[in-house]
Write the structure tokens for this entry.
Amino acid sequence: MACPHAQFTVRGHGKRTAIEHQLILRTHHIHIQHRHSIFCTALGHGRLTLGLFAHMKGRCIEVQQHLRPGRDCLGCRVGRPDILTDGNAHANTVQLKYQSIATGLKITHLVKHPIVWQLMLAINRLKRAVTQQRRRVVKLAVLVQRQTDQNSNVAAVLAKLLQRIANADFQAGAQQQIFGWITGQGQLGKQDQMGTLLPRHLKLIERIDDLHARRNPTRKTSILEHDHVKMGELSFIMAHRINGVSALHTDLMKETVFEELNRLHPDRIVNETNGVTPRRWLLSCNPALSSLIDDVIDNDWVGHLDRLTEIEPHIDDASFLDRYAAAKKKNKVDLANFVRDTEGILLDPDAMYDIQIKRIHEYKRQHLNIIETIALWHEMRENPNADWTPRVKIFAGKAAPGYVFAKKIIHLINDVARTVNSDPVTSKLLKVAYLPNYNVTLAERLIPAADLSEQISTAGKEASGTGNMKFALNGALTIGTLDGANVEIREHVGAENFFLFGMTAPEVVARRSVAEHAKKAIDASPHLAGAIAAIESGAFSPGEPDRYADVADNLRWSDYFLVCSDFAAYYDKQREVDRVYQDQKTWMRMAAYNTARTGWFSSDRTIRGYMNDVWAAHSVTS
């Protein structure tokens, strides 16, 4: 099936042809369905059709670019794209950008946010027909070269791009590989940007790279590769020390990202695990608990947080636990009053306060949390008289302005909250709140009131985290993966005082190589399948049933951050949390051990580590 309006017309102006155009983004939401394809067909000399398209819901691509007098350029208009497969085929507008430079055409951003995830979905699905797709793209690359002026920069760049796609490894990591080509994420174009904007800097970087190469003739890693300046490698080579900020992340840097540079400079990577200041994150924000600690030891603990271990002998004292529980209850009442006054949501201070506050990002997996919330709500509705633990789910955090999928997660959480909170069957058992305008002041209210801290990122993705430390210090138990500083928190507070679930970093890598890993996880979990089906059907957006179709599609077919694969373990661990919380004496005892054993996570200790291992400095007061 082909649309008569599909064309991408290339008009050359002499031997120096350049292109600069921007596709206009008309809508924020792009929904993918069924198969995706990448293809190119030649229409004759000086003209070619380039289609990068998919089965989508919404409007068609509409792009306009006019010739600019007095400059080498070419104009193009892209209407509705050709479709290779049957079905209704429409596409929302996306953003592309080609930028001309003095030395030749370079693609700085082939596709800009917000369609990056849709392309990643497309690439994921291309795995099913990888051989066929590779043959097609190689053939099309040849067609581009034949049908366009051989001296044209356009032909060279298109051919290079298509060859890259054709040669890509469509197994584990292919999505990230192509994502990097498309966005240039984390890198500055050597000629596109550095050479034009900062030519002197580029020359210095070239000298640095050349000097490092001469000093290390066996090296394979380079600062300058594929016309890009690799900022991580540049920073490593120029640094005196590199801090991994947590034990796990430090090991991962040595073994993966900087494996060769670490062999060349084995003393350069060090670990100084992050810390938090007890002045703000305990003394100031939690006066009820601080006062109790003063009474049990003395106020010198503020400058020597490791003294919190002196609390441990008192934890089996019933009067101490009663005061500890009273401090937590006061903080929860204060938060309930604040939420009532600002958001109009009534929270029960006797319910478990289950809190996830952090930047909204797929690797931090707020969508895993809200999907489990949906599954729990379904269970409560089916068995309202069961022995449920009342729970309040609180979310807060901000997303980057251009991060469309993260904003969709925020929207979903708010829609779920509206539905769940208005359900008369479960309203006394489950509440959901997304608190707006997250900042330090709001965090100072939330952290002391938390019973459960959600630290559920995909293993291997979180560098360290400090919110996890703040929660534990204030007596919240952690449900989390072995990621970032969670590993060290669990070691310090004790495995028996930490709710661990999920895959390890090596297991995550292995799982991504499993074909259709998301589908297998969904098929194996009725709770997960039901939650995704509810999202997909519009149960939380009845006025716009397909509002979250792309979220469901991402979970079913891509799921790079393995939400589905970790769901069953997460759901089961949450039910264990419910059971433990019902025994308040045991819960408070575990919480008190978290406070007593997290003194090591003081920023004072981190700074002393920097003094000894990085700066070779000494305190003037020691």
Summary: Confidence is low (pLDDT under 50) at residues 1-120, 125-129, 147-151, 168-190.
